[in-house]
Amino acid sequence: MLSKRLFSTSSKQLSKANVSKLGNGITIINKPSTTSKSSIGFYLNSGSRSENPYNSGISSLLGNLITSSKSSKDALTNEGVKYYSSNQKEVTGLLSAVYPSGNASGAINSVKNTFSQLESIINDSTNLSIQKEKSIAVTEAFENSPKDMVIEHMIGTAFQGTSLALPKYGKSESLEILLSEDLKSYLQKNLVSSNLSIVAVGDEISHDDLVKLASELPIPTGAKTPFEPTSFLGSDIRLRDDNLPQAHAAISVLTPGLTDSASFYTGLVAAQINGSYAGINSPFSPFVGSTLAQFLEEYHLIDSFDHFQLAYSDVGLWGGYFASHNVGNYDETIHFALKNWNRFSTGTVNEIEFSKAKAELKLNLLKPAECPVALSEKLATQAFALGYVPSEAEISAEIDAVTPAAVKAWAQKYLYDQDIAVAGNGQIEALFDYNRIRNDMSMLRW
Amino acid sequence: MFSSARHFSSAAARAVSVKTVPVAVESVSSLKVVVKNAGSKSASAGLAHLLSTSAFLDTTEKSGLRLKREAELLGGEYSAEVTRDALVLKATFLKESLPFFVNSLASTLSDAAYKPHELNEIAGPYASQVYATESANPEFKALEELHAVSYRSGLGLPLYYDGSKSYTNEDIKTLAKEAFLSENVEIIGENVNAADLEKIVSESKFASLPKGNDVIAQKQPTYTGAESRIRQAGKTSAVIGLPVEDASAYELVAAGLISSVPESFSATVDSKVLSYEGSNLFYFSVTSPNASEVSTIISAAAKALKSTDFSKYSKLASLLAGKEVAAKSVSVPADFNLVVVGDVDAVPLKSEL
């Protein structure tokens, strides 16, 4: 009996993430993986939301400094360990070390070495000025990617005046003036035990190894500085550029954040009902089942679109992004998309669309991550916001629990006749003014 | 179709090979079907790409529309890709839909209709779109040219359909008939039960694919010492490459070159060994909007290629190659191929490197 029991759980153990919180507040996560590369990463629960208008970009600059430091180069050439850094609204990937299987000790030694040199890394003024320039180049490159750019500006206008509105990669005018001193005080405030998560993906570093590593690193004990509260304002921002070939716009409403998991999953299902449309970038575009995609394609009103449920710890944004080269009729693209959204409130989404959305959402949320770095960032984000990492079975159960009635109730509360945040870029002459778009959020005749 | 009595002997009776790999997820499985002899090296230029973009459209039993809608409802997605060696069909889906996707992949090989309007309206335009997107990238263009000068025919044929030839749906049908033989087909299942997969495959149309001789990887004649320079607006890309015998030795060279060229602000540097059936192609590439930077880095790489001791880079090589690479000494031949795309005047000639 005993052996049978062991076998029956062994496949579950393969994929389960272990999460624990140490006495001093450091969160330790490890998840087994079967890929050829593994990683060990250090994540701070700060991100751009912990910045202010005068040091916007400091989290990503710090990551760039670490990944371009001498100890990072030594790790790469001598140990075969590559460093990555990342920055999101609420999570900073300070350092994520990817190593080939069989080299866990090399990775652990490298990150220890880097942590011991952290002070000299931020004091290296030559590298600082190079990385400032590089970070500014990243913010400018970001402005050239219309989809990322309009979504970032949409978040910016939605939460204007609060730190959640600050761009992920910072702003060139604040990056320019940053000094080593700023980095030092930022680290003092944010690199503290209860703000840190150490995440290992792969089979070679065990939970105990991580606990041991955490005790050996010079991480001061301290409490996390809570995020500044945020507030949503229905508003729009337009960056008209007639040199671009298309019109781009992103529109969203305010929803609850990650902690309200019932609303979060309902929002995800609602977003998946219309899903995304890839246009000429997929041979199967003419066949997609989404009613919105069929309609917009038939009338040549769309190149590509996407629906999303963005979520932070306390708030979220639900909406869509639309790109079209049919700029003269772009008002119709937006009008019909928003009229389609009205269906959620009237409860006229049919059974088939609903089960399609749920099946596709399960696939999207549960398919294996492409690289260990993306996976560890996801694990850290969930652990910070929720205090745990939901298992696959829990995610499936949450999706199954979303009923058509729940979507209707959710839509009537958060979507119907609600204020919107709008961002537009490109040839947006036909993107109507705020009030006319806002009018489409409700119906004259139910 | 096999009768149920033959399940137990299916592995012997069937020539289609089936493999399974474990993955650290519970709910999502994926299937990869690799069809050797249906890659771009085995057909007239571009035809194999059109064959891949014609996958998952109408079959004699089911329309492409119905397949897409059914897959959406089950929570699954599929795609087809052409490589130089093979046609690769992929499907990712919720675990319980395994039979549906095995059957769908099987019928796209055995029953595809290849209708004329599909080539004109879907497969053709999509293939051209892929080619246009990829060739806007100078590094892709330089690598294509590197293949062309290193192999001339076979592996030297273009990967994608570039519009230089015209084909009809009958050409595609003929290629499919020649290539979709059971010995050419390998099925790799991730996170699926091996016995289940074997059984479902043996009952699917994979089992009734016509038999044919296994493809023997033939050694390709290779060429070094060639130089090709293509003028083009946009970024500049330079590639040094040569066909090599010992792939793992050149994984060390790739690692060594990446770590020895100067750091740069805007340039992207890449070095790999592309392993094909019958040959491996090693390359080092640099791409930048700044052509003089390309010139500096490619010169440094050419110098490092001659003088570096590559045996010490086994750890970095293991990371880059994603597999264990043992340290060994490498003797790099003096001659190589050079391709430059973009502002070609700013980059030195091969004789000057």
From TrEMBL, chain A:
Residues 181-361 form the Peptidase M16 C-terminal domain. GO terms for cellular component: mitochondrion. Pfam families: Peptidase_M16, Peptidase_M16_C. Residues 31-167 form the Peptidase M16 N-terminal domain. One of its GO terms (molecular function) is metalloendopeptidase activity. InterPro entries: Metalloenz_LuxS/M16, MPP/UQCRC_Complex, Pept_M16_N, Peptidase_M16_C. It comes from the Eukaryota. This is Ubiquinol--cytochrome-c reductase subunit.
Automatic annotation (TrEMBL), chain B:
GO terms for cellular component: mitochondrial inner membrane. This is Cytochrome b-c1 complex subunit 2, mitochondrial. It is found in: Mitochondrion inner membrane. It holds the Pfam family Peptidase_M16. Belongs to the peptidase M16 family. UQCRC2/QCR2 subfamily. It comes from the Eukaryota. Residues 27-161 form the Peptidase M16 N-terminal domain. InterPro entries: Metalloenz_LuxS/M16 (IPR011249), MPP/UQCRC_Complex (IPR050361), Pept_M16_N (IPR011765). It comes from Pichia kluyveri (Yeast). Its main location: mitochondrion. It is a peripheral membrane protein.
